[in-house]
Amino acid sequence: MQLLSLSSSQRVAARSILAILGAAMLVSACSRPAPPEEPVRSVKVITVGLGAFESGQEYAGEVRARVESRLGFRVAGKITKRTVEVGQRVKAGQLLAQLDPRDYQLAADAGRAQVVSATTQRDLAAADLTRYRALKDQNFISGAELERREATLKAAQATLEQAQAQLAGQGNQTGYTQLLADVSGVVTAVEAEAGQVVAAGTPVVRIAQDGPRDVVFAVPEDKLARVPVGSAVTVRSWTGGPSLRGTVRELAASADPVTRTFPVKVTLSEKDAGEALPLGATAYVVPQAGAQLAGGVIKLPTSALRQEGKGSAVWVLDTASMTVRSQPVQIATADGNEAVIASGLQPGQKVVSAGVHVLSPGQKVTIYKPNGPDPSVEQSSNAMKSGASAPVAPAAPTPASAPAASSSAPATR
User: Fold this and answer.
1) % helix / strand / coil in the chain, to the nearest 5?
2) Gap between the Cα atoms of 63 and 350, Å rounded
3) Residue 391 in 3-state DSSP?
4) Contact, 366 vs 41, CB < 8 A?
5) Which of 23, 293, 355, 384 gives a 20 to 30 Å CA spacing to 9?
6) Do residues 385 and 377 make contact, with C-beta atoms less than 8 angstroms apart?
7) Cβ count within 10 A of residue 167
8) Residue among 60, 39, 163 at smallest CA distance from 112
9) CA distance 268 to 263
10) Cα separation of 211 and 225, whole Å?
11) Which 8-state DSSP code applies to residue 316?
12) How far apart are CA 251 and CA 235, in angstroms?
């Protein structure tokens, strides 16, 4: 009624004021509340310092014989028996395997028959030459005929020598049907079985010769400079025992086509290898060349590192403002559970070592300080323990309740 009693201009002004107030209330209702303040977190920090670091790396290797022979038959044939097993020790001249020798025995028999035939032809030529010389002395034949008989004798002699050489070759091939050990050693592999037909030169048995032992291991291409030929290494058995001194004897000129690593051979004395490192044992090799770095290095626990883009970073604490900032670092290598920092930090800086994934740049923090046990909690705990050991007193009897008075009033009339 009051709005109707106003003039038209006053009503327009009042409506405008009401519209502005309503829009202000609507905007205030739709606006986002102010974000809560980021909490101040407690962090563990460590002070960056220089420490010693041994850069020597440990490689796993295998103990092998310096000379390992792959023996095979020098002739082709069918294997009839094999007399050795893997791991068996053999002596020089011991029979390892046997081929079927019948074909070679027949060839040897044929060679002996050819020798007999050539011997007969030689003897006949020699007798003819003797008779023709007597005839020549009596001038019954010419000198040319005597020379022909001498040439016939020489040809027969050459044929006999040829047959004898062929017989010797056939005899050798018959002997080659037996595979004999050249040297004493241990059988490390058997590559053919009885009943198998093998060609000449096919490996049948592998023997590790007795004598000096080598430890063979592989290194990547970027570590070749640490194991030059002639450098000293430390070798120890995987099962424990004393460490042995060795020397790099051979470094492969080309990388393995599968692993792309370079095989390295370390020589050990025969006495040390036989007692502490048996053939085929696993050994650990630590190169000594350049094992100790000059000066100290900065090492951080892996819990202080975090991924930032394509690199690594740490949180550095600004003690003046008690805020953290991100600092990119470059990692050189690892040393157990610690990372060796190549660049990015200076000694004396404080780095957050725990809880790095919940921080943000510029966030305020406090240094975590472990608190001792709460005295009140300890007293409460002691009281509970003493209360549990004390006898429980009987509860006081509850007095009987009086009869309840009637709350209903008499009806009035």
Assistant:
1) 30, 30, 35
2) 48
3) coil
4) yes
5) 23
6) no
7) 21
8) 163
9) 16
10) 29
11) E
12) 17
Place of tokens 């606006």: 31
- Take residue 201 and report the two structure tokens written for it: 């030169």
Are 285 and 235 contacting, i.e. CB atoms less than 8 angstroms apart?
yes
d(CA 296, CA 83): 61
Which string of DSSP letters, residue by residue, matches 55-78? ----EEEEEEES-EEEEE-SS-EE
**Which residues, including other chains, have CB under 8 Å from residue 167's CB and lie 6 or more apart?**
108, 111, 112, 114, 115
Task: Tell me how long the chain is.
Answer: 413
262 within 8 A of 219, measured Cβ to Cβ? yes
Nearest CA to 331 among 357, 297, 280, 380? 297
The whole-angstrom separation of Cα 208 and Cα 70 is 9
- How far apart, in whole angstroms, are the C-alpha atoms of residue 115 and residue 89? 42
Quick one: which H or E segment has residue 410? none
Alpha-carbon Rg of the chain, whole angstroms? 51
Q: Is 18 exposed, middle or buried (0-12, 13-18, 19+ CB in 10 A)?
A: exposed
247 close to 304: Cβ distance less than 8 angstroms: no
Helices (H), 31-140: 102-137
Contact of 268 with 246, CB cutoff 8 Å: yes
Distance between first and last Cα of the chain:
54
Q: SS in 3 state form for 215-277? A: EEEEECHHHHHHCCCCCEEEEEECCCCCCEEEEEEEECCCCCCCCCCEEEEEEECHHHHHHHC
Contacts of 339 (CB under 8 A, 6+ apart): 299, 300, 301, 302, 305, 331, 333
Residue carrying the six token digits 């490390």: 188
Q: Give 10-residue mean pLDDT values along the chain (413 residues).
A: 55 70 60 65 88 73 90 95 93 94 93 94 92 88 88 94 93 93 92 94 93 90 85 86 87 92 87 70 80 67 89 92 92 80 90 88 86 46 41 40 36 34
Please state, as a whole number, how many other Cβ atoms lie within 10 Å of the Cβ of residue 290.
14
